[in-house]
Amino acid sequence: xxxxxxxxxxxxxxxxxxxxxxxxxxxxxxxxxxxxxxxxxxxxxxxxxxxxxxxxxxxxxxxxxxxxxxxxxxxxxxxxxxxxxxxxxxxxxxxxxxxxxxxxxxxxxxxxxxxxxxxxxxxxxxxxxxxxxxxxxxxxxxxxxxxxxxxxxxxxxxxxxxxxxxxxxxxxxxxxxxxxxxxxxxxxxxxxxxxxxxxxxxxxxxxxxxxxxxxxxxxxxxxxxxxxxxxxxxxxxxxxxxxxxxxxxxxxxxxxxx
Length: 258
Fold this sequence. Notes:
Elements: E1 2-3, E2 7-12, E3 15-20, H1 31-45, E4 52-56, E5 61-63, H2 76-82, H3 86-92, E6 98-102, E7 105-107, H4 109-115, E8 119-123, E9 127-129, H5 143-151, H6 153-162, E10 166-167, H7 168-174, E11 179-181, H8 186-198, H9 202-214, H10 220-233, H11 238-249
């Protein structure tokens, strides 16, 4: 386990767990934490010994939002020049699958950060929301876009325009999260999911993630073309040969990530 200033990093096998660690402010996302998080995720993404990442907070809060103290006195030009959302774009480009383990509050920037992940495991105590409207602004790190794609226009409008939080069960029914488990198991379940992913052929996993994400920003025709090219590309990998040979020979495949 490695403790950074705002994060705790641990590894088990091919799975890395990154924990947000600003407990006094419910893991509020300040600029310093975001810089540290992005650099850590990129380093893990470039590490061949990491095949899946778990991103979590504490039992009380995944992240309760952005650190408002950093923005309260900012002008529009300050925010433009700060260009803080370029870091979020870098998270979006992480190729390694990220599983979010969410308990307690995932609000504002915390909800947006969670939605940058590929799979979301929530505890029964989790609460989700985009309450920026209550302080005179609106989501700025993808909340209006990712939330709408996840839960549909009606619920997204309600959450964004009123600031209403939803429960874990509501989030599950709306399709925002993959699974809801008792609070004592949420991190364990996320790590189990990440372990399952890490045991699949790494190149195929990365290209499959890329293809799924492509479906959100292209037409069906272009998406299908992209999918096919990634499918054909995998026939150049050693893992494809190993996987098909193992299937025919009725044995467990041994993935090399090549």
